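Encode chain A's predicted structure.
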Amino acid sequence: MYFNKHSNLENAENDLWKHIEEMKKSSIQEILKLKKALINWSQEIINSFTFIDGRRITNGIMESKNGIAKEIKNNAKGYKNFLRYRNRCLYCMNKTTKPNYAGSHKSIRMKGWPRGRYKKNK
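Encoded structure for chain A:
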């Protein structure tokens, strides 16, 4: 989209509304839905043209981290122990991170049945 590549913070609002006016001429239902979404999110779209250190600001990094955390949880079919889940997320997102046990007085081991005596079948 030309608007996304060539606009900056000063002219983004004007360019966005020009684009929305062009969409109003369409009779395609999907275009009209997109126009409504652009109107609803117009301030956020305009704010996305803010540059810091030559790069546009975005929440893409956090969305990526949330996606990784969801994948970890889904691949494990859920976690019953939050500390294990937290440590796994930290490790997967940054391999140099060590587990943090500070302030934790409970074990992160899973509770299970006592093993009992082992008996061989004869």
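The longest strand covers residues 51-52.
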